[in-house]
Write a structure and sequence with these properties.
Helix content: under 10%
Largest sheet: 7 strands, mixed
Radius of gyration: 13 Å
Mean pLDDT: 96
Number of strands: 11
Length: 126
């Protein structure tokens, strides 16, 4: 079992920045690939970013490329999502997720993630 807890959400003006954290406990964090997803009201949960176990590989949804950066510190059992140049359409609940190993090109699929955090609200005002 892996327990994930997100933090760092909040209210920010358009153009601002936030950094989300995902603290993991329960198993060896470095054995798990991580993903970030978000869900806006009335919409399905969508892929935002993924990061490999070592942190050496990252992948992003087109709508956040160049603005968001995923990273991780395995020594601290924590993953991060740095969000810059935020837009009102980025408003959503953001979730971190994890699964053991690395699935290759399936990193965007929610179904491969076994463990999810409770989510943290990000609100971007115009």
């Amino acid at each position: 079992q892996v327990q994930l807890v997100e933090s760092g959400g909040g209210l920010v003006q358009a153009g601002g920045s936030l950094r989300l954290s995902c603290s993991a406990s329960g198993r060896t964090f470095r054995d798990y690939s991580m993903g970030w997803f978000r869900q806006a009201p009335g919409k399905e949960r969508e892929f935002v970013a993924a990061i490999s176990r070592s942190g050496g590989n990252t992948y992003y949804a087109d709508f956040v490329k160049g603005r968001f950066t995923a990273s991780r510190d395995n020594a601290k059992n924590t993953g991060y999502l740095q969000m810059n140049s935020l837009k009102p359409e980025d408003t959503a609940v953001y979730y971190c997720a994890a699964y053991a190993g690395w699935s290759g090109t399936r990193y965007m699929q929610r179904s491969i993630y076994n463990y999810w955090g409770q989510g943290t609200q990000v609100t971007v005002s115009s």
